[in-house]
Design goal:
By secondary structure, this protein is α/β, with parallel strands linked by helices. The protein has one domain: Flavodoxin domain (Rossmann fold, 3-Layer(aba) Sandwich), CATH 3.40.50. The protein is built from seven helices and six strands, in the order E-H-E-H-H-H-E-H-E-H-E-E-H. This is Ribosyldihydronicotinamide dehydrogenase [quinone].
Length: about 230
């Protein structure tokens, strides 16, 4: 889809990893389609994951008692966020699709990626109650989680030792991304690549490449399915 803009938020220390290869394939395939692809390589950038006073440039709204949420909100409204946050927010604002590429850590994303969300998706930019979920400020954008796991598919199945992976995805897909208005595409999951044969790993890469060829034709998933509340 020529003219579409994609932001890949990538968190892995090793370019030769499967995550690195998945990221590279996404850049190559989407670029072939005429998309403008930007990568935020968080480890390479040495992105600061902590929410601190340094995120606010200039005077604080309430210097007597520091409240990060309030201060970041006020700083966003007044153009006083730090330069690195402004740059990442610009990438998000311009993107039609965000792809988060990472290895699963403790049933979630790596701390550096969670920190990216903590700092970038501030109130006023990404959400502003009641403007959340379907009314979130980043609506009309797509988001997709692409990640690897340590355990195999059976471990993350209904009845598996780690439980149904759909429950694990809920806080990331619904609580973070859908809360900010994103429409969520089905996740791309590579189960236990470290224990897979070479051919299986190649198939993981091929499957991702083939999916990307028609990614713009996909319909978002339902982020509030009935089964979750049973």
């Amino acid at each position: 889809m020529a003219g579409k803009k994609v932001l890949i938020v990538y968190a892995h220390q090793e370019p030769k990893s499967l995550n690195g290869s998945l990221k590279a394939i996404a850049v190559e395939e989407l670029s072939k389609q005429g998309c403008n692809v930007v990568v935020s390589d968080l480890y390479e950038m040495q992105f600061e994951p902590r929410t601190t006073r340094k995120d606010i440039v200039g005077n604080l709204y309430n210097p007597k008692e520091f409240n990060y949420g309030v201060e970041a909100w006020e700083a966003w409204k007044n153009g006083h966020l730090s330069e690195d946050l402004i740059e990442e927010q610009k990438k998000v604002k311009e993107a039609n699709l965000l792809i988060f590429q990472f290895p699963l850590y403790w049933f979630s994303m790596p701390a550096i990626m969670k920190g990216w969300m903590d700092r970038v998706f501030v109130q006023g930019f990404a959400h502003d109650f009641p403007k959340c979920y379907d009314s979130g400020l980043l609506k009309n954008k797509l988001a997709l989680l692409s990640f690897t796991t340590g355990g195999d598919k059976g471990m993350y199945s209904d009845g598996g030792v780690s439980g149904d992976i759909r429950y694990l995805l809920w806080p990331m897909q619904h609580g973070m991304l859908h809360f900010c208005g994103f429409s969520i595409l089905a996740p791309q999951i590579c189960f236990a690549p470290e224990y897979a044969a070479q051919e299986e790993r190649r198939q993981m890469l091929t499957s991702w490449q083939q999916r990307l060829k028609t990614i713009w034709e996909e319909e978002p998933i339902n982020c509030t399915p009935e089964w979750y509340y049973k």
